[in-house]
Design brief:
By secondary structure, the chain is α+β, with helices and mostly antiparallel strands. It contains 5 helices and 14 strands. Strand 1, helix 1 and strand 2 form a beta-alpha-beta unit.
Amino acid sequence: MIHRLQVTSSTMKDAAALAARIDGKEGAAHGTAVVAESQSAGIGRHGHAWHSDDLGGLYLSIILRIPGVGPSVTLALGLAVQEALQEVAGVSADLRWPNDVMLNERKVAGILVQAADDALIAGIGINVNQRQFPPDLAEIATSLYLETGKTCDLETLLQRVVVLSLHHTKLPQPEILRKFEACSSYARGKAVEVEGTLGVTMGLDETGFLLVRTAAGIQKITAGGVRPAQ
């Protein structure tokens, strides 16, 4: 089921409210999605805002009732968005660990997974038909329109993102990790900087955390922004 809103503060908050158990009654079912034309307070990782106050993007949150809350869920959602963008818009996006979908080294989509009661809320924001971004985002963000010069049908993209998200998140964890490594230029052999530390990516560990070889040895990255080394 898809709940459609015109404007909301955050689809993640709305989805969490739907997922909550109230007076002993089960919350909304696995796969329920909330989608809005715009958000006034979109949420990014580490408390950052996600720019979503226009009508050019796809802003949705999906209720997932699946075991686990590790990084593999976020990686599976990235794979789903990447596949949907290829199918609907014909673009080959890259995946930057753990939650960024990139086109030409600029972010076109972001993913955030949060626990809510006995469910997970998968927030997905995709820049689709925007013609421009605020000055502080213009160098790091892009949209499908800016990359292709064509508008994209939001409804078609929405349907594919939801279907593929439910498919990829039920895959066995080893398969998710294998597919992510195959579909991400950042997963292995990439010179990166993580919170001021330089290194080269060495793939994922068995739970989906990123391994980076640094001057001090191989480090497991559990949080922090991964960027190309300058």
